[in-house]
TrEMBL record, chain B:
<dbReference type="GO" id="GO:0000978">
    <property type="term" value="F:RNA polymerase II cis-regulatory region sequence-specific DNA binding"/>
</dbReference>
<dbReference type="InterPro" id="IPR003958">
    <property type="entry name" value="CBFA_NFYB_domain"/>
</dbReference>
<comment type="subunit">
    <text>Heterotrimeric transcription factor composed of three components, NF-YA, NF-YB and NF-YC. NF-YB and NF-YC must interact and dimerize for NF-YA association and DNA binding.</text>
</comment>
<keyword id="KW-0804">Transcription</keyword>
<keyword id="KW-0238">DNA-binding</keyword>
<dbReference type="GO" id="GO:0046982">
    <property type="term" value="F:protein heterodimerization activity"/>
</dbReference>
<keyword id="KW-0805">Transcription regulation</keyword>
<protein>
    <recommendedName>
        <fullName>Transcription factor CBF/NF-Y/archaeal histone domain-containing protein</fullName>
    </recommendedName>
</protein>
<dbReference type="Pfam" id="PF00808">
    <property type="entry name" value="CBFD_NFYB_HMF"/>
</dbReference>
<keyword id="KW-0539">Nucleus</keyword>
<comment type="similarity">
    <text>Belongs to the NFYC/HAP5 subunit family.</text>
</comment>
<dbReference type="GO" id="GO:0000981">
    <property type="term" value="F:DNA-binding transcription factor activity, RNA polymerase II-specific"/>
</dbReference>
<dbReference type="GO" id="GO:0005634">
    <property type="term" value="C:nucleus"/>
</dbReference>
<dbReference type="InterPro" id="IPR009072">
    <property type="entry name" value="Histone-fold"/>
</dbReference>
<feature type="domain" description="Transcription factor CBF/NF-Y/archaeal histone">
    <location>
        <begin position="20"/>
        <end position="84"/>
    </location>
</feature>
<comment type="function">
    <text>Stimulates the transcription of various genes by recognizing and binding to a CCAAT motif in promoters.</text>
</comment>
<dbReference type="InterPro" id="IPR050568">
    <property type="entry name" value="Transcr_DNA_Rep_Reg"/>
</dbReference>
Length: 164, 109
């Protein structure tokens, strides 16, 4: 018969808690883990029923943490009361200190930080000087570039005639 | 940078407490425990998450003591059952561990 996983604590979480109290070399068979899963659910039901009865006896409808702790004490789990009380008090103190946010506030994002100026580095190669575009072709280095392969101009020599 | 505290997951409305037992599942089991369990305070499952952790630790330690008595290193269901039988406060589990079928028992023809 297939077990309904929603009725039990997750086996991975259970195993992690078990590992905290077992030596490193200990092994735990799957059937032991499943049995403990069932025991935990039975524990929750057992304590809840007792806590609920306490509520009814006092003409209340909501099962509170105090009911749960009192039920545990009444059913023989008195040694859990102190750690649970410390736990609840800590939780409540945290709630008072840092209450959870109620709504997401749409605040404008802060401006991005200014980009830091890069420090000057020795040996930095400066960018080439600005080029006078109007006289670009008159520049000696550019004239040589264009005339070079077809050298014949610039003071003598035949000009290239493609129709010859 | 500040690290989140142990309970920050709890405070930000996380689904699990700091001990990672799922609160929604605890609440489901609480509600199923009786027809007349109707209203449960928000903090009750949180208390149970810690209580279940204490319960698991105690049952595991007792079951491991049974395993050691068998001079072995693997805890089986029988060790958990033996721990339940030996501990008075676990009397409510006697029916559960004795009704669970033993898969290692030989089948009768």
């Amino acid at each position: 018969m297939k077990r309904d996983p929603d009725q039990y604590m997750p086996i991975a979480t259970l195993t992690r808690i078990m590992r905290c109290v077992l030596p490193d070399h200990a092994k735990v068979a799957d059937d032991a883990k499943e049995t403990i899963q069932e025991c935990v659910s039975e524990f929750i039901s057992f304590i809840t029923n007792e806590a609920n009865e306490r509520c009814h006896r006092e003409y209340r409808r909501t099962v509170t943490p105090n009911d749960v702790v009192a039920a545990m004490e009444g059913l023989g789990f008195g040694n859990y009361v102190e750690p649970l009380t410390v736990f609840i008090n800590k939780h409540r103190a945290q709630q008072d200190c840092c209450p959870p946010p109620r709504q997401a506030t749409h605040q404008p994002l802060p401006p991005p930080p200014q980009m830091a100026r890069l420090p000057a580095v020795d040996g930095y190669v400066p960018s080439p000087p600005a080029v006078d575009v109007a006289n670009y072709l008159e520049m000696p280095q550019m004239r040589d570039y264009f005339v070079g392969p077809y050298r014949g101009g610039g003071g003598g020599g035949e000009q290239f005639d493609p129709f010859k | 940078m500040r690290q989140p505290g142990a309970y920050s997951n709890l405070l930000s409305g996380g689904k699990t407490g700091p001990h990672s037992l799922p609160l929604a599942r605890i609440k489901k089991i609480m509600k199923k425990s009786g027809e007349d369990v109707k209203m449960i305070s928000g903090e009750a499952p949180i208390v149970f998450s810690k209580a279940c952790e204490l319960f698991i630790e105690e049952l595991t330690k007792r079951a491991w003591a049974m395993t050691l008595q068998r001079k072995t290193r693997t805890m089986h269901k029988e060790d958990v059952a033996a721990a339940v039988m030996e501990t008075d406060i676990f009397d409510f589990l006697v029916g559960l561990v004795s009704h669970t079928p033993n898969p290692s028992a030989p089948l009768e023809s």
